[in-house]
Backbone:
């Protein structure tokens, strides 16, 4: 955790130093009656091009282009710098023209999705490790199916052994919903313990109506429910870490397309 904080501080400091240098150069151009907006626009476009190279670096991992950690740090510095350069270039947070507003919305959405992905990659892996459950993402449906089968067999055995169907009715009315597929996606995403609390609450709700023999079967069901909740956590967090790029990359492509068009239009009108 301390290393992550130092890394974030270094990224912010590096971005601040570079931005201060660019701001100073921009002010010098203004004093010299040059076009600071044009220069900051080219700087911004260059940073955006560099940021897109990070995805190319990941696709060409077999070529020795430097450690991925260095590229990630540079990508993060570039992202922070791009945001600062954008405000320096536009001299506002929100422009007035329709085309400019579309470009701004794409830019902010790209930055936001990038920040979200960076935070997720830093926060979620430790949470998965602390869950005490290890599971391969592609096998999660199989694990859910196996646990559901085990619970249903447990309920049938309870009914046969005790000649009472209280636990069976509880499963059909309440717990079958939980064991059918991964649940509490948003709760796991934000770090809530709602899934665990829900399982405990269902245990408490039915336990008062069970005899000692049934309570032993309930203990096993609750244990399997807690295991299922841990798998649900993996499903939620691994899904986000695998799929956030499906949002970030299309946004990046759209942003770069409009940026190139914007650059062409500006240069055509400048002729």
Residues:
């Amino acid at each position: 955790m301390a290393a992550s904080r130092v890394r974030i501080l270094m990224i912010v400091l590096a971005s601040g130093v570079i931005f201060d240098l660019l701001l100073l150069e921009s002010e010098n151009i203004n004093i010299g009656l040059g076009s600071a907006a044009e220069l900051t626009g080219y700087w911004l476009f260059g940073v955006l091009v560099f940021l897109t190279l990070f995805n190319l670096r990941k696709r060409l991992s077999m070529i020795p282009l430097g450690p991925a950690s260095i590229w990630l740090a540079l990508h993060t510095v570039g992202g922070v710098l791009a945001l600062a350069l954008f405000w320096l270039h536009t001299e506002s947070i929100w422009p007035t023209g329709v085309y400019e507003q579309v470009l701004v919305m794409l830019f902010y959405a790209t930055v936001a999705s990038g920040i979200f992905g960076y935070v997720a990659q830093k926060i979620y892996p430790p949470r998965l490790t602390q869950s005490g459950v290890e599971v391969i993402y592609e096998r999660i449906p199989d694990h859910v199916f196996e646990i559901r089968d085990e619970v249903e067999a447990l309920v049938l055995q309870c009914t046969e052994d005790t000649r009472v169907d209280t636990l069976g009715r509880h499963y059909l009315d309440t717990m079958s919903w939980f064991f059918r597929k991964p649940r509490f996606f948003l709760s796991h995403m934000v770090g809530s313990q709602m899934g665990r609390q829900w399982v405990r609450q269902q245990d408490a709700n039915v336990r008062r109506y069970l005899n000692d023999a049934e309570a032993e079967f309930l203990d096993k069901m609750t244990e399997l429910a807690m295991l299922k909740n841990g798998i649900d956590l993996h499903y939620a967090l691994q899904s986000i870490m695998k799929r956030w790029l499906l949002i970030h990359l299309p946004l990046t492509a759209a942003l770069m397309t409009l940026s190139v068009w914007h650059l062409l239009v500006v240069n055509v009108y400048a002729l």
In short: The longest helix spans residues 98-130. Confidence is low (pLDDT under 50) at residues 29-34.
